[in-house]
Amino acid sequence: MSNKRERDKRREERIAAESKADTGDRRTRLLQIGAGAVFLVIIAVVVIIVIAGSSSSSGGDAENLVEIKQVDSLVDGIPQQKLVLGDGKAPVELIEYGDLQCPICKEYSEEVLPAIIEKQVKNGEVKIIYRDFIIISEESIPAGEAALAAGEQGKGWSFIELFYRNQGEERSGYVTDEFIESIAEGAGVPDMKKFNEERKSGKFKDKVTATTEQAEKFGFTGTPSFAIEGPHSNGIELLGTPGSTEAIDEAIEKAA
Fold it and tell me: Within this chain, do residues 48 and 114 fall inside the same structural domain, yes or no?
């Protein structure tokens, strides 16, 4: 009996040990599975964030224009004549040489110039003239022609501002007919048939080339570059790329 009791005792100890080992193994496997699941969730979240971030910042989407109302509000009530924004009799001319594909021009459109437009342009002190300065790529030429065509219908600056706010990655091929037409419609160009005929006719290409050459003669090497002329300026004075709204304000005050 003694031997039997010892065997039974050893069997019970072995079963208990094996049960304990199995429990530990199961716990380890569960922890590994749980960790793997958490890792997969983290990866999925990162992928979603990357995709969302890239889609929201890439721009150039003809079917998903943004900030139409903001642009309308910015230029509301201000005269537009060709690519001139403001009262034609305003004593000070602020001339911007820009490339519609230029990301720095987009920053100025959104962060630097609005304060000038809402104050000095709206109260008749300043008019802003946009001139193409093609430096990014050939894709900027049809964009510039389209801005001039929109300007023929009194929506030049609306087109420019909306283009900048929906600008895609430079040289990415986003400046298509579809994108240009979408910007024109969003800007409120009234006669789209005329707009498309004129922008594709070649009649504005010489103008785009001429203003680019003018910027180069001034010695400008980047966009946006600015010049100013007013009652107290020494003719057309070159400002280059002012670093802030305040710097442009100061130039306006001197010219006025």
Answer: no
